[in-house]
Amino acid sequence: MELRHLRYFVVVAETGGFTAAAKRLNTVQPSLSRQIRDLESYVGTSLFERSGRHIELTQAGRAFLDEARLTLAQADRAVERAREVARGQSGRLTLGFVFGVEAEQLMRVMNALHGELEHVELAMHSQSSPVLITQLKERQIDAAFIRPSRQAQGLSIQTLRSEKLIAALPANHPLAQESVIHLAQFVGEPFICVTREHAPVLYDAIHDYANRHGVALDAAYQSENLMMALSLINSVGGVCLLPEQSVRLFPQGIVALPLAEASPTIELALAWHPENRSAALTAFLAAFRERQHIGSTDGVFDMYR
């Protein structure tokens, strides 16, 4: 028994006769009659009662009709499902986010998935860039928003923006009244710094910057991620250097100030494994490129002073 037997049977049942069914199926009546006889032989019972040109479903035929329609619908759905996956309009997509960019980039991700890609199953998690890069290389995730470093060599990278570093400090700190911060003003202050293990790009940018200006920044506290750094600023009254986009996540009681010296920058990028042939990933990357808008960060200090 093949799907065509079920389709022929359903059309005959719906039209009430072989002549009308043959016309709808664009076939000849003798061939259609033979297909139905083959089906009845396979099932082992009559599905139609024949009386001249008039036919009616038997009790077994009525039961078979319900199941045949269900089977055909499921087969059609299976075909469409396979086509959706092949087009990248279905399937599963696993994305990683470096700590601190989730809120902003998730909105762009959802915009990219809107419409034709809305049936893609999305899994997400946040991690440090080194962990995300390892997961990309091991094909544990499909794509990730990372701070690109030498470790990312071998991955496909789309740079999204460069971010200046800014000074973050408590709103009640004496330096909070300044219009800009000179790096030397951090000397003697409880400095909060990310660990190189968890944020090597930011760590190196901060220390290279300090070395160029002859300032020794000894970390009184170390932080594994942005939220921990913000918590330390509030709880111990420390100062910190952070990417400017992180200002959007500052809780009440923390202010951002620009640096007087030319600020170092770090990049945010979307990365994926070049040999990942996932149709969902390919479709997502195309939609994300089409819809992304890298906005200016001008005015963020005014927003959070």
UniProtKB/TrEMBL annotation:
Listed InterPro entries: LysR_HTH_N, LysR_subst-bd, WH-like_DNA-bd_sf, WH_DNA-bd_sf
Pfam families listed in its UniProt record: HTH_1, LysR_substrate
Every HTH lysR-type domain range: 1-58
GO cellular component term of the entry, any: protein-DNA complex
Keywords for this protein: DNA-binding, Transcription, Transcription regulation
GO molecular-function terms, A-Z: DNA binding; DNA-binding transcription factor activity
Gene3D superfamilies given in the database record: Periplasmic binding protein-like II (3.40.190.10), Winged helix-like DNA-binding domain superfamily/Winged helix DNA-binding domain (1.10.10.10)
Alphabetical list of CDD domains matching this protein: PBP2_LTTR_aromatics_like (cd08414)
Keyword Transcription regulation: yes
Similarity section: Belongs to the LysR transcriptional regulatory family.
Name of this protein: LysR family transcriptional regulator
